[in-house]
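Support case: pyridoxal-5'-phosphate complex. Customer-provided input:
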Amino acid sequence: MADGSQIHPPKPATLAAQALGRVDPLTRAIIPPIHPSATYERAPDGTYPGGRTYTRDHNPTYDQPESLLTALEGGQAARLFSSGMAAATTIFETLDIGDHVVAPQQMYWSIRRWLQDLATRGRIELDLVPNGDQAALERALRPGRTRIVWVETPANPTCAITDIAATARAAHAAGARLVADSTLATPVLCRPIEHGADLVMHSATKQLNGHADVLAGALVTASQDEFWERIGQDRGSRGAVLGPFEAWLLLRGMRTLFLRVSHSAAAAQRIAEWLVSHPGIVEVFYPGLPSHRDHAVAARQMSGGFGMLLSFRVAGGAAEAKRVAGALRLFKNATSLGGVESLVEHRAPVEGPGTPVPDDLLRLSIGIEAVDDLVGDLAQALRNGPSPATA
Ligand SMILES: *Cc1c(COP(=O)(O)O)cnc(C)c1O
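Agent response - structure generated as follows:
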């Protein structure tokens, strides 16, 4: 309208920066309060006028981060959990004995190990299929028996990409739900629900919070169905809930999500391009490289960049990879990813015997430092390379 009273719906970056623009109705505070209360008062007639009973079921500090995540993912509802693992395992806790699950061979190793353990104990039946192999996935599906198809895209640590839309079609045709672990993409770069996923899972410990000071997880659902109700009941019954202080910190971190993700993805792209031509490198895994096996799918499914995580294989084998990880000075030699500080990890020893990860692979999580400094650090640590950047 001419008087400007009608504006377009705010873009996701605006929603995140303003945490949906909410203002505390009582105090007009722009920054929300933290509600540490474990319990809520009943009215004389025994009802709960505040709508809440006990913090294991619901805490008001969750409302704003859950609503923001719902909006950013384009879902219908979200729930926070005490960790990414708590969010992931809650999904499998809702299954019945003998239900069938299909998951990729390359995925976050703790979830894979948990699934394999459940299968060994006879709780579920499990097929692990090669990432991105649509034919293998369709062969593994058992119509009417497969309940969950799990994808992780990009996958940790080799950045393998799965076509979410094609996988969703196959899963739905078999009567299964598609869950996407979208930790590495974040809603800034990919929104799996738009491609047909039923649930999105996040380790909010990583880029959603972004400062490596909160352990948290989240699920976002495309529909508030009976399965979503079971997930909510399970969270409350097992107490896999986030503390209110952590929920508050997570919301604070999410306000800068778009700045951090864009910066880190651009820096990761530049570092991947620099590594590709380095003589001390065997192979670089980054979906933003045209040489990456899944680049075309990634380019179609993601926008605004390809993420903060990349991996590469060091010429000279596992011992040389270990040496390089130790020789980096700015990159901290530590596990995890998605913080403002860049990290390096020699990955195979962490995952242990049986891992599909090559033993000469180093995984980098790119933070928000000056990218020239990071390239310079890699240059000084790698042998046989160009001299360190002078910047
Ligand atoms: C870290 C991570 C998880 C597990 O999350 P936690 O918050 O550490 O429990 C799951 N999936 C991916 C892709 C991760 O990187």
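The pocket of pyridoxal-5'-phosphate is lined by residues 83-85, 108, 111, 152, 156, 181, 183-184, 203, 205-206, 215, 217, 337 (CB under 6 Å).

Case will auto-close in a few days if no follow-up is received.
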